[in-house]
Protein: ABC transporter ATP-binding protein
Organism: Nitratireductor mangrovi
Amino acid sequence: MEQADSKRPEPAERAGRLPAGVSFAARLAFDNIWHSFSRTAETLRGVSLTAEPGEVLCLLGPSGSGKTTLLRIAAGIETQTRGRILLNDREISGPNVFVPPEKRSIGLVFQDFALFPHLSILDNVRFGLTALSPADARREALAAIARVGLTHHAHSFPHILSGGEQQRVALARALAPRPAVLLLDEPFSGLDSRLKDTVRAETLAILRQSRATAIVVTHDAEEAMRMGDRIALLKDGRLVQVGPAETLFQNPADLFVAGFFSELNLFDATARDGWVETPLGKFPAPSFAGIAPVTVAIRLEGIEAQEKNGETEARVISRRFLGEAEALELAVPGADEPVRARIRRGVLPPGLRDIWLTVRKSDVLVFERQAENA
Ligand SMILES: Nc1ncnc2c1ncn2[C@@H]1O[C@H](COP(=O)(O)OP(=O)(O)OP(=O)(O)O)[C@@H](O)[C@H]1O
């Protein structure tokens, strides 16, 4: 639907100009970015990544993996120790070039929204429009406020707005100067979980409409899957994998990536001629030809539980009601630790102790065993 919409020219476009607030999307490239805050530790280690024009790229990774630092380098408020930043193939930061933040056409939305408490919503949004005449700045600011649906609050002060409304003001302020690229650092982390879904969907719609290229930092895999056209996963300052959510979920590059997207049961095993045996059954491991030590990861959702006629016998240790799902802890012969499963509510009759399990093959992932399974 979004694609169809983006093909249909809006009236202003048909008249030869862009509708209010629409940006010319740009390509933003990180070329072999290294960064350190101290001589001993490196925050970013050779990150090369390109956000394509108009795409929403999510930077995902655990706390301390370097996401915010990468965003700050793109914005020009932090400087890399090596590497270059390119906007539409033009170097904006590198060994001999440094375009200051205000000249980059890059907007930034902070985690805490960073609104000025003593300024009205209109003045907050107008703040970054200093290049325009006062009348034009007011018009553009009002247009940006209208696009986030807050016209009725243009003269209010931030403290009377809800968290979600404040987030929309922050978005309007960042979009008002029509940046080619918008950087959002954990933009929903201050919102409660119920509000988060709505605000996230609204933000995505506004980003699509503005057509700016957007890079969104998050540590939440589900959020990255909901928002990103592609996801770039960072670990310890390195890019581990980049691609659409389906690719990272279905073909994770390693156990770290797999564990970021799903909860897993892990088994150490030995691959023999393309097969591995685990307490939950024997599974194909076609990428291992000879004999190799491997880690077998089985998603919790990939284990089905039945009263009878399964493949592996198990005893229920605990059952926890989770609404639509039930979390099971199971004792399985040959498994050192309890096996965890997440099944649909109501599949198993209450009080059952001995059950049968069947594992969906697409939920079994086999990785070369690492010295340390981080
Ligand atoms: N100003 C600073 N001085 C020294 N070290 C810093 C500074 N800012 C960040 N760091 C360190 O750099 C590393 C990367 O931090 P960064 O904030 O980029 O990670 P992040 O992935 O965004 O984490 P989070 O999700 O917790 O915000 C961390 O180890 C952090 O402690």
About this structure: The pocket of adenosine-5'-triphosphate is lined by residues 37, 43, 61, 63-69, 219 (CB under 6 Å).
